[in-house]
Design brief:
Elements: H1 10-27, H2 41-56, H3 62-75, E1 79-80, E2 90-91, H4 102-119, H5 129-147, H6 156-171
Parallel strand pairs: 1-2
Helix pairs in contact: 1-2, 1-4, 2-3, 2-4, 3-4
């Protein structure tokens, strides 16, 4: 089933993802990527499938996106090879996400960011690593406090209600 977003179809988003990937590859010295019009049909189909996966799984991490791509490649007869060889269906990215070189992980993140941006996926927010780390630390602290019984404190419910009231005032 092909999904259409408010502004762009899956195919249109896939085309932008493909061209962004081509530009990124060029920036790191890989000039082998063809334009969308010149790309093989299997490459276009792969981009389309990747967009559809992201639309269906907007909260999936880049590692899950990569695993989905790899599974599709395996089903099509592809295997690992040190260089990309479409004729023999070999690809150097046919490894776990953790084994991917940083450049390839960035391609996956770029792909997801383009899809999210063009699809209007409002569930994705970009924050700095510093802000992310601070949020993770705060969440761990809250979890530890709740595990220690702070949620049984007599003022706990009042504090949460006040926090919610303040949040509504700032949003309204």
């Amino acid at each position: 089933m092909q999904t259409t977003t408010a502004a762009l179809s899956v195919v249109q988003i896939a085309r932008v993802c493909h061209e962004a990937n081509k530009a990124y590859c060029f920036s790191i010295g890989d000039t082998s990527q063809k334009s969308w019009e010149e790309a093989e049909q299997w490459q276009r189909d792969s981009a389309i499938a990747g967009v559809q996966y992201r639309l269906d799984n907007p909260d999936a991490p880049a590692s899950a996106q990569h695993e989905s791509w790899m599974k599709a490649k395996e089903q099509a007869g592809w295997s690992y090879g040190p260089i990309k060889d479409p004729e023999n269906k070999q690809h150097p990215c046919m490894v776990s996400y953790e084994e991917l070189p940083e450049e390839d992980r960035r391609k996956d993140a770029l792909f997801q960011a383009v899809v999210d941006s063009l699809a209007g996926n409002n569930s994705v927010v970009v924050i700095s690593k510093r802000a992310h780390d601070s949020l993770v630390k705060s969440e761990a602290k809250l979890n530890a406090l709740e595990a220690g019984g702070v949620d049984n404190w007599s003022g706990y419910s009042e504090a949460l209600a006040t926090m919610e009231d303040n949040s509504e005032e700032t949003q309204g």
